[in-house]
Amino acid sequence: MNNQLKMLLSLSLSLGLLLALGLKGAELKQVVVMLDWLSNPNHVPLFVAEQEGFFEEEGLNVELLIPGNPSDPVKLAAAGRIDIAVTTGMNLIIARAAGLPLAAFGGLIQHPLGGLLALREREIESLEDLEGDRIGYSLEPEEPVLWRAMLGCVGLEPQDYELINVGFNTVAALLASSVEAIGAFRNDERIQVELQGQETAFFPMEEYCIPDNYQLVVVANEQVINGRPEPLRSFIEALSKGIGLTLYDPNRALDIFFAANPELEDELNLRSFLATLLYFQGSPCVNDPGRWSELGDFLFSQGLIEQEAKLEELFTAEFLPQECLASDDGSKF
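RESULT FIELD:
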């Protein structure tokens, strides 16, 4: 083969490769995903899937959005303004009870992260020690219900303590002794307080009469689930790869997250990621009917929803990988 022919063949192959890449880019389906709140280590597998090209490998161009308000994701997904929302399992049940046509089709964090946080220097070793104390919280109406249920689990009545809405200044209120305990996440406020040199007493909600539940799930409108299933199937496939890499190589996953969010590279987010890592195990599975049923019954008994949740409306196992399906009861729309 002469040099001229070799050059023409090389040029042809190069043009073919460029054309193939261009077609691949043109075929990517746009998917808009809104996080539950500001970017944080809870979202590491999503950023891994984005930055490592796992979404693109599945034919998706995924845009990760930050909400202006924590209530925005489910509302916008229900209205069809976004394709996918990240939210809590608890929020999903409440939204569904309010008539929003949403369902979970995958999970991100498998267990609750919340609970009550106090300082050990104040000789609080058990929930019973909060009798007569002030407890700060941020969000209504969910938080007062949760903390009353936890405290009631150890025999304390509402008149035995005081719940105070301190806005989003919970850590400052605790450190300033404005309150003796706060509602907190074990991978956030607890670490913030410990970085201030304080020893903490943390009481996980699932150990005190709050059902174990999915902390973060991905949800979509029923019309999307039924009418445009392939992007959701592809999304779960890519998310599964992101979760797998995060669990297999946490250092690399964290580097990817910090590269995408350089303003978050600090000791707090490093420790937060380490405290969150094990909670990714089991995701993207979200199809344990018992967990959904127990949480729905709890929310109904506490008055957070006005009618009992319908299990078949809360999640679909249609897009989950095979390893999730051993516990699947076949719930679909």
